[in-house]
Specification:
CATH architecture of chain A: 3-Layer(aba) Sandwich
Strand order of the largest sheet of chain A: 1-2-3-7-6-5-4
Strand content of chain A: 25-35%
CATH class of chain A: Alpha Beta
CATH topology of chain A: Protein Transport Mog1p, Chain A
Largest sheet of chain B: 5 strands, mixed
Helix content of chain B: 25-40%
Largest interface: A-B, 37 and 35 residues
Order of helices and strands of chain A: HHEEEHEEEEH
Distance between the termini of chain B: 91 Å
Structural class of chain A: alpha+beta
Number of strands of chain A: 7
Radius of gyration of chain B: 29 Å
Largest sheet of chain A: 7 strands, antiparallel
Structural class of chain B: alpha+beta
Oligomer: heterodimer
Strand order of the largest sheet of chain B: 11-10-13-19-23
Helix content of chain A: 25-40%
Distance between the termini of chain A: 60 Å
Strand content of chain B: 15-25%
Chain lengths: 169, 763
Amino acid sequence: MHLNMKSKVLTTLGICLLALPGFCRAANNCTWINEATVSGLLGGMAIVEVTEADTNGTTICEFTQQGDGFKRVFRLTVDVTSEAHARLESLVPSCKIDAFPLKAIGNEAQACTMNDLKSGQGERAIGRVRDQLFTILIYTSLKDDPILTRETLKIRINTAAELVAGNLF
Amino acid sequence: MKRFHIFLLFTACLLVAGWSPVPILGQQNAATDALPPAYTLSPNNATPVDDSPAEHEELANWKIKAEKMQKEDRGAHNASVTPSYNFHYGSNNPYTPGNLTVEGDGFLQPSAYPSAEYCGTCHHEAYSQWRQALHSNAFRTPFYRTSVNLLIRDKTRGIAFARHCDSCHNPIGVLSGALTEDSKIDRSEFDSDGLTCMTCHSVISLDSTNGNGSFKMGVPSVIVDEKGERIPGMVPFDMILKHPERHSKAVMHDFLHTPEFCASCHKANLPVTLNDYKFIRAFTDYDEWQQSKFSQRNPLTFYTADFTTCQNCHMKRNAIALPDYGAKNGTFASHRWLAGNTAVPFYYGFDEQLNKTIDFLREGNYLNVDIFALRKADGDAMIAPLGRVSFNLSPSENIEAYVVVQNKNIGHSLIPEVRDLYEAWLEFTVKDASGKEIYHSGFLNPDGFLDPRAHSFTNRPVTDQGEFVDNHKVWTIHSVAYDNTVQAGRSVLIRYKFRLPADVQNAYTVTAKVNYRHLRQSYINNVLGKDHPAYPVIEVASRTRILKIGENLPEAGNAADNPEWMRWNNLGIALFDQFQYQESIQAFAQVVKLRPSYADGYINVGLTDIVWEKFESARKAIHRALALDPKSARALYYDGLLERRAGNTDRELADFSTVVGMFPQSRDARRELGIFYYRQHDYDAALKQFEALQKIDPDDLAAHYNLAILYRRMGKPKEAAEQQAKFADKKVDPGAPTYSLDYLHAHPEITIESIPWHLHSDQ
């Protein structure tokens, strides 16, 4: 009986905990990719914070999956600019390590390994859809992340870039 | 106990987040570059292997677990998705404006579908073809996304309306409940695969031939048990390899081979739930096929052919290049679905798909281009058919050239489907011996735009403001300013006028070619901006003739040329469609002269006479045809019309009844027989015909109209009201032509394209 009671309490608590994120989280308001998708890409539940377009037309969606002693981040920046191609060209030199073209994503895009992380590992994608420049960073603070391995990161940056570009069209 | 709760919590958290640690039950996705699991193909008709009692039990246990997991996953998914889902059309219509439905209750989680890679483990050939084909890219292609994103971003519409388009472009997204403002679903699982293997192979029934995704999706299953009951989800490969017949039963329904299956998506309308206006036909490959010679369901086609389905052309069996356990005798039905789309493989760099598409377009003998005749100055007799007659030409002469383009072997129109986006046109050039252009119509401008005065087999949908719907904003379409498509089996006559220069000497070359570009330049610009590479222009069919200054003698034709009688026949058909009845009859008279035993030659004369209201002459021609071929359903049909006019009801009934007996799916014969019974006050018999007609074509206006009256007379007000409402919804808005006129007034450069009988000239 006592055990049954304990079980019921635990189950109820579990259900409440499950429901909490739904109540607590802000609306899913990143225009180009949702929390569930990024959660799938990061390998765990991510929370988004959106910085709406500033005077330069830059919008940032930052998704964070906070773990126990680590975090995984998905950062999307979208700029609307009449010189999108030229600006993309200017970003190319900073995206050189293990760079590879992202074929058939937007008008043009490429990915590379992030080299400016103090710890952990990550991938960067830069690309363009018409006059919209986008940058995606996916990184983890863990050096040997069991989910976001170097190989997985390359696959997921490609998937992320395709999904974002699709919504930018 | 504690561990269980932690596991429960963790799993539930993941499910709430919209993803699951798939595959829980089955294997990890296998890479298709690895060899498929070992398997020896059983000979055809081999007796299936019997399971041992232990294997029976194992399968039964697997089924119980799989069903339990499916139920739990689906329950958790719905608990996550339903509360915030936008039920724009009420909770009973979660997928409207799409027509698709799903087995069971609530949304179906994306993880229920085995991945393409899973299927590809044993079906390398199918997987590799599918990956480059339109179906796998149906959603992600920018050419689609740009359109659907406009709908999603439109202030008067939104993502709920995109269920109309995504029902066919991304059914997993629609059925999972992903198309809502605050989606809780991980799109990375399915967006890139569009129509994955287990979308088509999970369809369990076709609900109608209404299109817009008129199918019912089953819970995906790759195997049935010994009782034929479907087991959801992925299973170990050895389970399939032991019982390929059970795998086949789960994924290969007979209807997959039928045109009706294709119709569920290759037929579309714009319903009032989308456009807040009224039903507008978008496209219908299915009906076009059904009315073509290839269906053998329509007795009124100008030509006949062997029964040919969509799959016979677009899923031809080819020798396999990669291992595939679905192959039969080393061949496999193509999962490339080759057709006309060159833009998608060009964008993705799928060179093999692109090259095969180009080959498909060029090698199918789909079109015939015939530089049929010349006419010198006004009033002179037609010099025709070219190549068969002698004539003289002189410098400075004003020449008219008649080009006949026949839609010879396409089972649908040229251009099918969204012909406001695709571009096929006739390029016509006249060059002197040095290659200098004398006349050129249908050129591409340096900016990639097509010569606006070209003859294009396109249409022009317009808004209620009389503006061209350039961006495929289909929900704004209110009218069509013109539609220059060429229906299956029909021909079109395109006329050009040019002047030979005074100094032209020797010979000059006249070339007519049908070009095809996927897509229109302005649409590609809308999608990618102006700085994109030039998209492929494919020459589908062409014909060149050398014309000499001085005397031209008859010459041998090309292998691809039609026989002379058919050339005249095609001219007659084209003139008939352009309302030039007198000239049409003259052309058909040539057919009769060349092929006096060809009953259809007389029928064509009779048909034209009927439309021209020369009934006595029509009667003679039809009777002549019936004398040659008393069982000609086509002749009997037109005879029925003539007998009706003459008041010979017995003959009328006999004619239409015979045609319906021979062609039970003939819309025209069903309609006329229904009208006959209605006029005879035999309402039960009339009802039967109109109900049959509606089954063939759910949008037939005559069926809606007459059924509304008949049901009312029979005391069925509810059914009558339903038919009446459908008639009112589907009937063309009588005010709509004014939108077209507004557009045409504003665009004089293409106004002539809206007139069937027109002349292209730079003079």
